[in-house]
């Protein structure tokens, strides 16, 4: 497994690769959800690249960039075991050298939900993903459905800019009690960790109603909020039932939709989602 810190190293490696390349962009501190993306990429491609880069552009001024968990050596050991061909782990200055000013804005789709709660977040995501795609030049890139809006944003990005990368979305990997795997779960206190599965329980309640035929989007949102209200430690940011292509809120669920939420547990902000009729 080659570990590269410089763009020129990745390009030199890429120039000698034959066959398909699968790419898994990460911010590191890998968990089983990341490894599922890597395994999917391994099955479907001749070579696999993983990037590890905590992207400062997608963090707001009062967010957790400085304390975001990092353990590069642990991550490299895990990726070695998954037969990854190349790990790109650049420093910030390699991606954003002095004088860097260009940013990619995907428009209204990135201004809703996560974009409204975290202004500029998706501009940062779209910018770094575009740059990584240009460096790695993969055939396929793998993302998890837990960050459902991110999947929609990146699909919009590659369609609008005609970037020749297939975006593969992989089902959310969960702990046995339903909590979606996330690097930020390490922040949770034992009591907060006990409460955290309520997020998925709330989504599952609304999804069950949808499966039973409920199509009133507000009733689905209310079902989520009602379940979350049972947990006084939870502070809800948003509950959404949105069009799966535009992330616009729905009145009636008459098309593929994404049911999603964000909530605070202490100082930790968690997100989760469920798909309603999405292939």
UniProtKB/TrEMBL annotation:
Q: What is its main location?
A: cytoplasm
Q: Which residues bind ATP?
A: 27-34, 144-147, 173, 181-184
| Pathway, per record | Cofactor biosynthesis; (R)-pantothenate biosynthesis; (R)-pantothenate from (R)-pantoate and beta-alanine: step 1/1
Keyword line: ATP-binding, Cytoplasm, Ligase, Nucleotide-binding, Pantothenate biosynthesis
GO CC terms of this entry: cytosol
Where is it localised?
Cytoplasm
Q: What superkingdom heads the lineage?
A: Bacteria
Binding residues for (R)-pantoate, per the UniProt record? 58, 150
- Which reaction is catalysed here? (R)-pantoate + beta-alanine + ATP = (R)-pantothenate + AMP + diphosphate + H(+)
Gene Ontology molecular-function annotations:
ATP binding; pantoate-beta-alanine ligase activity
Q: Which residues form the active site?
A: 34
Q: Name one GO biological process term.
A: pantothenate biosynthetic process
Q: At which positions is beta-alanine bound?
A: 58
Function in brief: Catalyzes the condensation of pantoate with beta-alanine in an ATP-dependent reaction via a pantoyl-adenylate intermediate.
How is the subunit organization of this protein annotated in UniProt?
A: Homodimer.
Describe the family membership recorded for this protein in Swiss-Prot or TrEMBL.
Answer: Belongs to the pantothenate synthetase family.
Q: What else is known?
A: The reaction proceeds by a bi uni uni bi ping pong mechanism.
- Name-wise, this protein is Pantothenate synthetase
Q: What's the source species for this entry?
A: Thermalbibacter longus
- Lineage, uppermost ranks: Bacteria, Pseudomonadati, Thermomicrobiota, Thermomicrobia, Thermomicrobiales
């Amino acid at each position: 497994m080659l570990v590269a810190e410089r763009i020129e190293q990745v390009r030199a490696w890429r120039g000698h690769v034959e066959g398909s390349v699968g790419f898994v962009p990460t911010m590191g501190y890998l968990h089983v959800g990341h490894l599922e993306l890597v395994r999917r990429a391994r099955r479907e491609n001749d070579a696999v690249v993983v990037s590890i880069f905590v992207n400062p552009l997608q963090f707001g001024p009062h967010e957790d960039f400085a304390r975001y968990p990092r353990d590069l050596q642990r991550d490299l050991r895990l990726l070695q075991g998954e037969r990854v061909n190349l790990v790109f782990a650049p420093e910030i200055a390699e991606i954003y050298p002095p004088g860097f000013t260009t940013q990619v804005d995907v428009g209204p789709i990135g201004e809703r939900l996560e974009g409204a709660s975290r202004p500029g977040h998706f501009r940062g995501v779209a910018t770094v993903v575009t740059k990584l795609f240009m460096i790695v030049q993969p055939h396929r890139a793998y993302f998890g459905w837990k960050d459902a809006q991110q999947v929609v944003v990146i699909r919009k990005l590659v369609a609008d800019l005609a970037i020749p990368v297939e975006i593969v979305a992989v089902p959310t990997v969960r702990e046995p009690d339903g909590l979606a795997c996330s690097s930020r779960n390490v922040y949770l206190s034992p009591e907060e960790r006990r409460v955290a599965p309520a997020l998925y329980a709330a989504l599952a309640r609304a999804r069950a109603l949808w499966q039973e035929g409920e199509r009133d989007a507000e009733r689905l949102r209310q079902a989520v909020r009602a379940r979350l209200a049972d947990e006084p430690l939870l502070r809800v940011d948003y509950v959404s039932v949105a069009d799966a292509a535009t992330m616009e809120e729905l009145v009636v669920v008459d098309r593929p939709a994404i049911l999603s939420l964000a909530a605070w547990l202490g100082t930790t902000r968690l997100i989760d989602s469920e798909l309603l009729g999405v292939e």
